[in-house]
């Protein structure tokens, strides 16, 4: 599979998908990588706790602006990474053409990535670490 465009999806597009997007951008500077939320908080910056996690890893996520997932995002993507089975199911039911290119970010560990929204910084840090590990797991496939 020749992957040039990666789309990362979560619910609000302010915590998990931006973190994964920025890890992927750091690893694959030549690819087009973006993120969106199924219920995207359009125009919102990334969550402050998510920004802090990434800052501790020397990744600046300050420029992130949340957007809502649409069919166009999915059409342009070669690979769509979601955070849970439910999100995968939702996307495949809403946009059947996306079937076959939607996978959980934690696919290789058979894990969902829990939503840290409105949790404490420790939960965010743990989620950030899991996302980083999951992104690394995709290295052999991207």
UniProtKB/TrEMBL annotation:
Q: Which UniProt keywords apply?
A: Hydrolase, Protein phosphatase
Q: Which SUPFAM superfamilies match?
A: Phosphotyrosine protein phosphatases I
UniProt KW Ligase keyword: no
User: EC?
Assistant: 3.1.3.48
One Pfam family, short name please? LMWPc
Highest taxon, organism lineage: Bacteria
Q: What class of enzyme is it?
A: hydrolase
Q: What is this protein called?
A: protein-tyrosine-phosphatase
Q: Which organism is it from?
A: Acinetobacter venetianus
Per UniProt, what is the name of the gene that codes for the protein in this document? Answer: ptp
